[in-house]
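Box 4.2: Ligand-aware structure prediction
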Amino acid sequence: MIAGPTARRDAGADSPLRLPRLVGSDLRVPLANGELRPYVNLDNAASTQAMQPVVDTVIALLPSYSSVHRGAGVPSQVSTRAYEAARHAIHSFVGARATDHVIFVRNTTEALNLAAHCITLRPGQIVLSTAVEHHANMLPWRRLAKVRVLDPAPSPEALLFDVKRALEDPLQPVGLLAVTGASNVTGEVYPVEQLSRLAHEHGALVAVDAAQLAPHRRIDMVELGVDFLALSGHKMYAPFGAGALIGPSAVLDRAEPLLAGGGAVTYVTLDDVEWAPAPDRLEAGSPNVVGAAALGAAAQVLQATGMDALAARERRLHRYLEGQLRGMPRIQRLVLWDGEDADRVGVCTFTVLGMHHALVAAALSAEHAIGVRHGCFCAHPYIAHLLGVSISDAHTIRDRLRRGEHRDIPGAVRVSLGLGNDVADIDRFITGLRSVVEAGPRLQYREDPASGDRIPVDDQRSMPSLPNLPSLTDSGIGAGCGQF
Ligand code: PMP
């Protein structure tokens, strides 16, 4: 049952879709002058608000919350059922094979690290990937084998051509192809089905980073031919700390457990251990039952709402956003595949000529109550490519950051849509952006040397404190520059 559905103004839809309500959809936030305004959340690619039905599941579970699997008490059995039901929901949501396992982890990063740990390549085999990847789908593979990184391809056809050629290279045999399902920077949806077919024809496995794909498109691992898939609950309206790795039992049942401990074993003696099969083998320790239940509920609600209908709605909104941005003076869109038929999730990234990305984002927040993201989106090589930053300039940036100098690091502004957005949100954003770009920010800003962020000189915003947590001043928060 989908609780509290709302109909929103849609861009050209015939009939409004019944969308699940998001917690915080009516949030009001302060401007720098202290006035309250309805918040426009255009940072969904980073994290989404919780869906009300997901929160309903969590609230229903909490009175019976208990440790899973071995407890004899009724709450333990309720929790165990919720945990395993969530596994089924994820399995169905991604169209996994009967022989696939769903392993609960914290997020996509952990899922891909776990996959890299579990997969064994033959001696001499390499991982093939591309420079568009998020760091989460780039760094773990470097620990597994040599990674051959293809330059960002100018079209899906060029990508398929490059991948085919690399797979045919006898000098660098590919054991695994690691690709994103959709770019978190430019939104392009990757031709995963064709890529998987090519990889399998050449005996390589396929791992897909579905962090951005899962909230926006229907996924069918069987149809796509994907071996390993990683996703995050906090990008799917279930921000309770769980994500999942889905992959074949033939690999996961034999993998050396990443974490050794309780729950991962069938029996332990003083000199030996019998590891359990997956998923237990790869879920040592007490699991995040609440997070898993939330993720399972989100998957079920998204599926029931209809991923294809959600995707169609988002495409209309996205086209509307792009139409409004097109032709705006000083705005330079960052796109890789700009053909009319290029499929894109609701992500739109741009730079403003003559204005630093941190200033644009800060002014949108402080003067218009609009939340966007700026920086490099944990995809440094891809942003460098899109902005024309050379390798030697990238090394200079690395050296400057190593010395703690955050001034004027090249980056961009990203707007990203979720199911909570409608045309009115885009109109508010366009009005705010026009005002910032054409008239300039109304306020004065200073640069925070620790992060490079811009902060209004006269900032009257006070952040609400939360019950049972100490209030921190800004100086207690830290720069968070690892997120750059
Ligand atoms: N891959 C992509 C494409 C992403 O957008 C993100 C999150 N920005 C990640 C991986 C990492 O996800 P998480 O932070 O949930 O581990």
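In the box above, the bound molecule is 4'-deoxy-4'-aminopyridoxal-5'-phosphate. The chain has 14 helices and 19 strands.
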